[in-house]
Design goal:
Chain lengths: ~180, ~130
Amino acid sequence: MRIETLLQIIMIIIALTIILDKDNLRLVIFSSAFSLIAASLYYMNKSPDVALAEAAIGSAIIPLIFIIAIEKQKQFIVVNHLNDEFLDRDTGKGYKVLEEFAKHYGLKLSVYKNDDGQIQGAFRERNIDLIVEKSPQDNRKYLFIGKKASILMNKLEQMTKDIEDIKIIKVEESERYD
Amino acid sequence: MRISLILVCISRLLYPFILLFGFYIILNGDKSPGGGFQGGVILATAFFITYFIDPKKIINLKLLVKIEKYLFALILIVACISYFTNGEFFTNFIPVDSPIENKRIFLILLNFFIGLKVTTGLIAVFSAFIEEGR
C-alpha cells in the first residue's frame, strides 16, 4: 500500500473522530493532527509552499487560540457594586451562593470590585456575566443583573429561587447596564 | 492558566531556533519553498511561544497596529520605486539586463516587509484575544 493512501485513510478516521467526539480539549489535539497529516499530503503532492503555511497555521496557531478560548470560557465574571460584606470571600452569604453555582457548572468564579480600569478588554468593553447591586426600593434585597441571552442566568435563577433577598434581573444584550 | 515547568523550559530552548527558521524562510523565499507569508507565520509562532514563558506579558497593541500600517505603506513604496527607474509601476526596479543576483534584491526586500507585516498582524490578533479575558 502506498503511504499516501494510508495517510488519507488516517485523515478520514481523524475527521470522523473530530465530529463524533464530545471532549473539547481532545478535539483540538485531533484537529492539530489532522492539519499535520494534511501538510504532509500537500508536500507529497508537490506543493511545499502550501505545506509550510498549513503546518504553521493549522497545527500551531489555531490549536493555541482554541485552547485559550476554552480556558477563557470557564470564567464567570461578577462585578460587585456593593459596599457591605454580602460578597466577601469568606463571610459573605452571596459569595457562598455564587461559589456553589460556579462549582456546579465547573466555572472559575472571579469577583471584581467596582473598578473600571481593571476589567476592560483590548478593543471593546469587557464582557461581564453578572452585576450585583443593592435594590433602590427595598433596602434588604440584592439585585443580580445579567444577560437575557445567557443560559447560565436561567440556571442561576432556578438555583436562587428559594433565597428571599436575591432578585434576578435579565436585560437585553445591546443595553448598557453598568 | 496553569503552565507546567517542562513546557516553559522547552519553550525557552525552542524560541531562538524558531526565530532563525522564520528568518531563513523569509530571506530564501525567492529560490526555495516559502516566502513572506509562511515565514511571517512562523515568526508569529515564535512570539506565541513567549506567551508560555511569561503569561502576564502585556503588549502595546496600538503601537503594533501602527507599525503594521507603516509596513503596508513601505511595501507600496518599494513596489513603486520602479516608476522612477523603468517608468512602470509594480515591477522590478533593477534594469532587465542586469545579472540575476542583483534582481533578487527586489524580491528579498518585498518578502522581508511582507513577512514583518504578517508577523505584526498575527501578533496583534493574538494579543487582542489574550487581553480580552484578563
